[in-house]
């Protein structure tokens, strides 16, 4: 669907209109896609305002008669490419403020507006002013704290980072009458530290397609069936870290020493390749795993199987890590970096043995959506340990936690060994139970009342 063609496809006499503002790639924001779809399914006409050239959202949104997509500029201009970073950011913010304000002033007046945060600049000011002028109720959906992400990139003690924190706190409190957030810890912070009111916790949950994928995998009774499909193999072969003769290549071509028993284990991680995910931990763990299997001499694939680590996603640090992966000389571990189709992603999770999450949270208050997707697909997770992650992962029940590469390496050896398969089976059962409550169930209970007339 072309985001620049805003075709009105609304049902007769909808109860109300709602604008969903994502100053980012809507196709890469599952939570905002789920919000838009849930609102439309509840009978609201939804205008989604997101980046031009955005990745295509899920087909249920593209084909929904109550959802219209509208494009806002990314604010990237060729003439400013060589300017200092501060000047580029200022030009970008001004351009986006003007364009976003124009769009929100010219669409049919919505009753409510839902804004994703981060980013808070220029969305809080633009959306706040428009809502004040047009008599619209503003709802902020707090995924994280924008100033902490800015500080991670440019320095948390810089004057600009401190200005961003003040702007986020004051503008968020000034304009919004309701707030949603993703964790109890974030709600407590917003209420006690920033003085916000009417804060509701609307937790991330997997969409129904992940449960369907889990059932599909169970029916197939073979985790490798998905990875052997032609379209998936073609995508894996296009990976910039694919190597002829590595573990996956040997297995696909029928040359691997374990084609039937003790087959390679599939480890999946999804990422936006941002600084709050340190993939160096996974690379170091893979190096240690490979070295231990090489030096242990007689260790069998029954005790220590070969690994295929598949990382899906797009983002700024992808190329850097691909270059690092290509310098590794691994015999028993293969990597693939890919971008899977939105229809294939749930099946990829369901067809893996273990998921890995390296999200550490810039604020320490948010949770990774990818873990919910993995639970929805009945995939147990190994995740980096930090305080708030305990709201999501019960260590030893639906997943495991680690602090560094050495600990992750030991977990890979323990969980993926055939002799310990009962441990992974128990974790999969825990993940399946954690994924039983889907987005629709949770949204209808906790978010839908916020949009009731």
TrEMBL record:
Family matches, as Pfam families: Glyco_trans_1_4
Keywords: Endoplasmic reticulum, Glycosyltransferase, Membrane, Transferase, Transmembrane, Transmembrane helix
Domain of life: Eukaryota
Pathway noted in the entry: Protein modification; protein glycosylation
GO molecular function, one term: mannosyltransferase activity
Subcellular location: Endoplasmic reticulum membrane
InterPro entries given in the database record: ALG1-like (IPR026051)
PANTHER family cross-referenced by the UniProt entry: BETA1,4 MANNOSYLTRANSFERASE, CHITOBIOSYLDIPHOSPHODOLICHOL BETA-MANNOSYLTRANSFERASE
Name assigned to this protein: Asparagine-linked glycosylation protein 1-like
């Amino acid at each position: 669907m072309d985001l620049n063609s805003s075709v009105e496809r609304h049902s007769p006499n909808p109860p109300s209109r709602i604008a969903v503002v994502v100053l980012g790639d809507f196709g890469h924001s599952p939570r905002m896609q789920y919000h838009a779809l849930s609102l439309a399914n509840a009978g609201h006409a939804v205008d989604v305002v997101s980046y031009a050239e955005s990745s295509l959202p899920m087909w249920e949104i593209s084909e929904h008669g109550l959802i219209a997509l509208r494009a806002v500029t990314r604010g990237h201009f060729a003439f400013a490419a060589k300017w200092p970073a501060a000047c580029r950011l200022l030009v970008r913010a001004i351009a986006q403020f003007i364009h976003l304000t124009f769009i929100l002033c010219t669409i049919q007046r919505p009753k409510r507006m839902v804004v994703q945060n981060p980013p808070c600049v220029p969305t809080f000011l633009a959306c706040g002013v428009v809502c004040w002028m047009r008599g619209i109720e503003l709802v902020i959906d707090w995924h994280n704290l924008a100033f902490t992400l800015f500080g991670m990139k440019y320095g948390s003690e810089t004057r600009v980072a401190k200005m961003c924190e003040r702007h986020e706190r004051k503008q968020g409190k000034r304009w919004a009458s309701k707030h949603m957030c993703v964790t109890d810890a974030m709600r407590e912070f917003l209420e006690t530290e920033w003085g916000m009111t009417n804060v509701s916790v609307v937790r991330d949950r997997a969409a129904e397609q992940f449960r369907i994928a889990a059932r599909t995998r169970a029916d197939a009774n073979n985790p490798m069936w998905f990875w052997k499909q032609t379209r998936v193999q073609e995508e894996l072969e296009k990976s910039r870290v694919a190597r002829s003769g590595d573990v996956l290549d040997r297995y696909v071509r029928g040359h691997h020493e374990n084609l039937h028993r003790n087959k390679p284990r599939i480890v999946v991680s999804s990422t936006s390749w941002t600084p709050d995910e340190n993939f160096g931990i996974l690379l170091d763990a893979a190096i240690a795993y490979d070295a231990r299997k090489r030096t242990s001499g007689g260790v069998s694939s029954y005790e220590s199987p070969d690994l295929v680590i598949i990382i899906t996603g797009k983002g700024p640090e992808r190329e850097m890590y691909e270059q690092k992966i290509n310098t590794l000389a691994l015999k028993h571990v293969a990597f693939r970096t890919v971008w899977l189709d939105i229809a294939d992603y749930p099946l990829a999770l369901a067809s893996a043995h273990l998921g890995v999450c390296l999200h550490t949270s810039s604020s320490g208050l948010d949770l990774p959506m990818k873990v919910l997707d993995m639970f929805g697909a009945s995939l147990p997770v190994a995740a980096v340990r930090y305080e708030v992650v305990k709201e999501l992962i019960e260590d030893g029940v639906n997943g495991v936690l680690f602090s560094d590469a050495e600990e992750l390496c030991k977990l890979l050896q323990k969980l993926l060994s055939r002799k310990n398969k009962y441990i992974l089976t128990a974790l999969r059962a825990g993940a399946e139970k954690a994924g039983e409550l889907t987005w629709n169930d949770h949204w209808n209970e906790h978010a839908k009342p916020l949009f009731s007339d």
